[in-house]
Amino acid sequence: MSETGATVVVVPCFNEEHRLDEKAFAALAAGGRLRLLFVDDGSSDGTGEVLGRMAEGCPGVEVLSLGANGGKAEAVRRGMQRAVAGGAEVVAYYDADMATPPDELERLVGVLRAHDDLVGVFGSRVARLGSIIERRALRHYLGRIYATLASYALGISVYDTQCGAKVFRVDARLARALTTPFRSSWAFDVELLHRLLVGGQGVDPVPVGALLEVPLTAWRDVSGSKLRLGAALRALGELASVARRRPRP
Predict the structure, then answer these.
(1) Which of 119, 107, 95, 105 lies closest to 168 in space, CA to CA?
(2) β-strands 120-124, 165-169 pairing
(3) CA dist., res. 194 & res. 177, Å (int)
(4) Structural domains of the chain, with CATH
(5) Could you read off the pLDDT of 45-103 as tens digits, one per residue?
(6) Cys-Cys with 87: which of 4, 13, 187, 196 at CB 3.0–4.6 Å?
């Protein structure tokens, strides 16, 4: 599948056989504005068969199958690398459960493409008048604690690092940030931002002003989330690791 100049959306999947909305994803790809790259992260259920069926039925869908389960962070990185190597102009990653509605994902892509100075646009789950953000109270308050610590780790103010809808403009800075596996398994979103903000190896850092959070108008908690308390605690430890690597003035 030629990706030159395209917007490629990476969708990591692990045992998503019963949560993948085939019709909704097919409709998203059929619009022609986005190409979908599903990364099967060593699923042990029927996810591979579902993805194969989707790829056969829609020319805008591609599947990258990984031999063994390496975790969401590595699935996202491998998928984004594949898209960058294929000539994508814009690359995004997006949760397989579609907690962020497809039209919201397209809106984020539109914001990035409309502003040449932007490198990254990220969905932000802000409950406000006019929005429908359906999130369990415990996850909301844990998210606020996490975001506060993530802001400290990165040295910038950020409201929501963990929303599963993020869009990036492809350039040398993004390619460099994807070169090596993430040290973090759950906090990889924060680590990716850290890599972009720090730069290195002859690549300039991304200025904070080139990153934008866009409040979503809709988002919903989807049953079957793989996040558990133990994983949340590990993510906090991973934030501490990112904070230790942040350059100090």
Answers:
(1) 119
(2) antiparallel
(3) 9
(4) 1-98 (3.90.550.10), 100-249 (no CATH)
(5) 999 999 999 999 999 999 999 989 999 999 999 999 999 999 999 999 999 999 999 99
(6) 4
